[in-house]
Amino acid sequence: MDKVELIQSLNIKKGHVYLQNQLPAQISNAIYQYGSSEDYHVILYVDLSTGLDGSKGLIFTENNLYFQLTKKGQINYQNIQSITLKKNKKQLFVKIQTKDEHYTFSDTIFDIEQLCTVLSKLTTLEVSYDLSLHEKVLYDISIILSDIENNEYEDLELDEIELNQLDTLKGDMQGIYELDDQAYILEIELLLSRALEFFDQLGLDSDEIDELVSIREQFNQKQNQAFEQAKSMASNMGVDMDLLKNKSPEELNQMVDDLCDKFHISRNQVETLAKKFMKH
After folding, report:
1. Domain assignments of the chain as residue spans, ordered by start
2. How far is CA 125 from the centre of its chain?
3. Which residues pair with 14 in a beta bridge?
4. Which segments in the chain show pLDDT lower than 70?
């Protein structure tokens, strides 16, 4: 794609979008308000104003992005020094660092991942990722699932059971975003194990899968450390872990209730720890 095709391929999620051969009358006001009369070769214009008067929006030219959103700005593509993808649970952001300033755009207007790709091609810069390990898990899994659906893996044909497993993983990912922070972290770690089992079952291999395997190893190391700390804490509380093996479910439940009362912790906290470390 050339520069014009790249910019016009952007998926704009909000506002009224106009290409260079269909610019509306209010483009003149937009250029006056926040564009440049010397950079008039407009490739893509997005009017975000309530009354379609050109007072708010984005103007893409061959060399610059002009915008009037919460503030007015201009980004020359050649002045971009870094492109960073960030994520906060459901929402994606891109941070664009120029020589003089940085700008952040959310996914309310753009398809952020596509915007990163377009900017990367316009600038020849690689996109960096400012994601936590847990966010990286969701990001990598979503890429792999998308590749499966788009037939990016050669000679891969899913049977009915595998298609159901794929749908279940996608549904589980969507549900995770609705959880509170503590459950969000735990469920991502459990999802990672299920996803890797599924990918291994399909015989898949990719950079994203290698990264997920590495992240799982890091999670396991942290869980081992936390489990040892939990055992030490239980010992300090006077709980003999070996005695728990012969207890009935009713007796164990009563012990949990007693511990919660004694140390003023919730049963949910205890159950979360138990779920996390049950493989030990």
Report:
1. 3-130, 134-277
2. 20
3. none
4. 226-253, 263-265, 267, 269-280
Query: Which residue's entry shows tokens 């483009």?
Result: 27
Whether 258 and 247 have beta carbons less than 8 Å apart is answered as no
Cα angle for residues 218, 219, 225 (degrees, 5° grid): 95
pLDDT tens for 212-256 read: 999 999 988 887 776 666 566 566 666 666 665 566 666 666 777
CATH class of the domain comprising 3-130 = mainly beta
Whole-angstrom distance, CA of residue 250 vs CA of residue 259: 14
List all residues 6 or more positions away from 218 whose beta carbon is below 8 Å from its beta carbon. Answer: 133
CA dihedral 168, 173, 178, 181 (to 10 degrees): 130
**Best CA proximity match to 43, nearest among 91, 4, 87, 88:** 4
Does residue 57 come out as left (phi exceeding 0), alpha (psi in the -120 to 50 range) or beta? left
Q: Which residues pair with 58 in a beta bridge?
A: 46, 67
Got the DSSP string for 244-276? GGG--HHHHHHHHHHHHHHHT--HHHHHHHHHH
